[in-house]
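Forum: Protein Structure Q&A
Topic: Joint prediction for protein chains with partners

I've read a bunch of threads here and the consensus seems to be that you should model interacting components together rather than docking separate models afterwards. I'd like to see that in practice. Below is the full input, 425 residues plus whatever partners are listed. Could one of the regulars post the assembled result?
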Amino acid sequence: MKSFKCSARHGYAVEISPFFPNRLACATSQYYGIAGCGTLLVLEQREPDILLLNSVAPGSVCRADLTCLLPVVSLDWNDGLFDVTWSESNEHVAVTGGGDGSLQIWDTANPRGPLRVLKGHTQEVYAVDWSQTRGENLLVSGSWDHTARVWDPESCQSVATLQGHEGVLYSTVWSPHIPACFASTSGDGMLRVWDVKAGSCQLAIPAHKAEILSCDWCKYDQSIVVTGAIDCSLCVWDVRSAGQPVAQLLGHSYAVRRVKFSPFYKTVLASCSYDFTVRFWDYSRSPALLDTVEHHSEFVCGLDFNLHIPNQVVDCSWDETVKIYTPPCLAALQTGTS
Amino acid sequence: MWSQFVPLSFAEVFRMIQTGEEIPGLLNLDIKPCNQLPTVSHMSRKLKPWEKIKGDRSLPEGTLKSPMRVRGSIRKEESKKDVQLLY
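Posted by a regular:
Agreed with the consensus. Here's the joint model:
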């Protein structure tokens, strides 16, 4: 496990670059996001330029993993940052959502400030996502103003505003399979699925009797979505028959803050929580809980699987650390889609 | 500046905001966009792991409309709140 200390910054979200296997972006806020500025940190896992190897015996072969998490660039914003997404079309570009209600488009190779600032939301932007479906370059944002907005990142224009939720939005995530389709979750306890081309909400599922802080799509079944809520549970839904969840995953002792489906295994997913833990689950098994990782001393808010390196995971926490690691429970799984 | 910084708990920061106390080390920045074009990209989008699987059983790209029968207590009045298209 490699750790990076982001002094005086509380991590809200983390995402590994879709281009560089060893690069990640972390959206952080000063003072827990309730006061002060925000910082987008770009980190890289690599061997440091200078190493002291006094303890290595002459002539011995050193096979140790000497990599560290090292800073690439640190980009400040006027308000706290709550989410980050990498561009799918330019390896240098990342987008964040901030406490001032705007989105910031960054060039991580140009530290002079954000390239563009997208205004429209009237309250905090808590979720941003760049579409992964090929041939499509769209941004979606979710805000505490109860709306989701879709943006064209090239023209920097808002192309749609989607209303329907009756509470603050906590997450907006594009389907990895269906173009122009995204899921959203809200403080109103609803999971909604939207079709941007049709311009309307396709599904509204009362997924929890509590605020839903996160959702994610299954990468190998286009109808499956997982939600994580303040009631400490995760629910796996087949959106075609949403009367009952496919699975309910219990174990966290405080709110579930973020959920992510594995890029490599159809029924494997991860969650992080205000109970300071990260948990790994396989909902095709009984019991579904694979492992609990307890290496943080504060809320764990950010979580991502590495798309390039199977079984590698990164997380970030209000304890001012970003950690990258390979949980043994994932390495023990067979590769494949089932 | 950082040598004088003492980490505060969430509760302490919250209390200081409510009482209007000055929070040490608080950064009030005035950053503006530079309105430049991004650094030119030299890499093409990679296939995701689920896109690389040959002969996978995922359905062809489409909408959720077929087949779809949604049961459960879905509030029908939600459908009246349609998209407000700005552009």
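The mean pLDDT of chain A is 93.
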